[in-house]
Design a protein that fits this description.
Blueprint (H helix, E strand, L loop, with lengths): L5 H4 L7 H8 L14 E4 L8 E4 L1 H10 L8 H11 L16 H9 L30 H9 L8 H15 L11 H16 L4
Antiparallel strand pairs: 1-2
Length: about 200
């Protein structure tokens, strides 16, 4: 009877993993080794995507001695490191290509300032143009508090404080000879100011 019969393999409580691996995997490429090759190891520079197949013991040995830059001169290594910053892709200095494709596209498309087209960010070499500043987008609760104080989303911290002080002076009963008819409005102003403080607008 064969000790390693395929019929008896499944009957063992713990199948021999190394024996299974040897049957289903290629043999280690290390000279003289016949173990299963479970671990890929890179073949080296200029052979990206190509791998040796080693067993665990020999892949460790190979990795200890592996040097991607072996045989590369100092100047080549320096150039490689510089190109590695950009992932070895070609780059240009800012503005160096301004009159190239961008300028050709602009004239081919028939755009001009006379027709009302503006290059707000200076992408096509015309230089930055004056353009409206985008409005701030604030949460609804903050917008409501600002509107209670009679302000818009562009209001700064100093503007909010000054407006609050002015309204409190105008609406407070002590300033209005004890008249409490505007007390509800005063409460709204105080609540709005506290909301703006919580939202770190002040």
């Amino acid at each position: 009877m064969k000790l390693h019969s395929k019929y008896l393999e499944g009957l063992r409580i713990r199948p021999d993993r190394e024996e299974q691996a040897r049957r289903h995997m290629p043999v280690c490429e290390w000279p003289g080794c016949e173990k299963a090759a479970e671990h890929p190891a890179p073949k080296g520079r200029d052979r990206e995507g190509e791998y040796f197949l080693f067993c665990k013991e020999h892949v460790r040995r190979y990795n200890k001695s592996y040097n991607y830059f072996s045989g590369m001169a100092d100047e080549e290594l320096r150039e490689w490191l510089e190109r590695n910053i950009t992932g070895h892709r070609p780059t240009w200095r800012m503005g160096a290509n301004a009159g190239g494709k961008a300028g050709a596209w602009r004239f081919a498309a028939g755009f001009s300032r006379a027709q009302g087209w503006r290059d707000g960010y200076g992408l096509f070499g015309d230089g930055p143009q004056t353009r409206a500043r985008p409005r701030r987008v604030l949460p609804p609760a903050v917008m409501e508090a600002l509107q209670t104080l009679g302000l818009d989303e562009e209001a700064t911290s100093d503007v909010i404080k000054a407006r609050y002080k002015k309204l409190v002076k105008e609406l407070h009963p002590d300033v209005n000879a004890g008249d409490r008819s505007r007390e509800a409005r005063l409460r709204d102003v105080i609540a709005a100011y506290h909301s703006l403080r919580k939202a770190r607008m002040v």
